[in-house]
Design a protein that fits this description.
DNA polymerase, domain 1; about 180 residues; binds FE2/S2 (inorganic) cluster; Ubiquitin-like (UB roll); globular; 2 domains; alpha+beta
């Protein structure tokens, strides 16, 4: 026998905009974001809480949207990768990702970037160890971890208002190479 599926109209605040969506109780947040709101920047890989590809922020905290019921997120501030740039102007974290080659195939990048945003909004000058710890739930199948960590450290520098343009933190980004990651512990 077909189970009773309860669906209710709910209000979602995503990237500062309110959406009214008819949501069934068992739907996950990532399903609503991608399939109902068309915000496909948030990725699904494992779909069981093991990879971090689906990370978004809820009230500033990184959460796994494949493991979160949409019904529990009504009225909370949800941030996805689409909310970061201001038109063509990238967020400083995205800019750092470009400069430090944080993406290879790029599939994991939205999840890593949202996790990094959650960290950097609380900790302006994280150590390399703190960055590693914060990113420990995110998997990069390309194995691009060194560049991802460099991206987060560069993003932190940029968000503190310090100019990084003459001191790239990884080779191949122009200028004179200086490994500032070591300066961050
Ligand atoms: S898709 Fe959500 S943790 Fe992997
Ligand atoms: S850049 Fe390809 S999975 Fe991370």
């Amino acid at each position: 026998m077909e189970k009773d599926r309860k669906a209710e109209e709910r209000d979602y605040l995503v990237n500062g905009k309110t959406y009214r969506v008819k949501v069934e109780d068992h739907w996950t947040l990532v399903y609503v974001l991608r399939d109902k709101l068309g915000l496909t920047g948030t990725k699904i890989a494992c779909d069981n809480g093991a990879c971090g590809a689906c990370t978004v922020l809820i009230d500033g905290e990184p959460i796994l949207s494949c493991m979160t019921l949409a019904a529990e997120c009504e009225g909370r501030a949800i941030e996805t990768i689409e909310g970061l740039s201001n038109g063509p102007r990238l967020h400083l974290i995205q800019q750092a990702w470009l400069e430090e080659h944080g993406a290879q195939c790029g599939f994991c990048s939205p999840g890593f970037i949202m996790t990094a945003k959650g960290l950097l909004e609380k900790t302006a000058s994280p150590t390399k160890e703190e960055v590693r710890e914060a990113l420990s739930g995110n998997v990069c199948r390309c194995g691009n971890y060194d560049h991802i960590i460099a991206s987060v450290l560069t993003a932190a520098t940029k968000m503190r208002g310090e100019d990084t343009s003459l001191a790239p933190t990884s080779p191949g980004t122009g200028g004179t190479y200086k490994d500032e990651r070591e300066d961050h512990g």
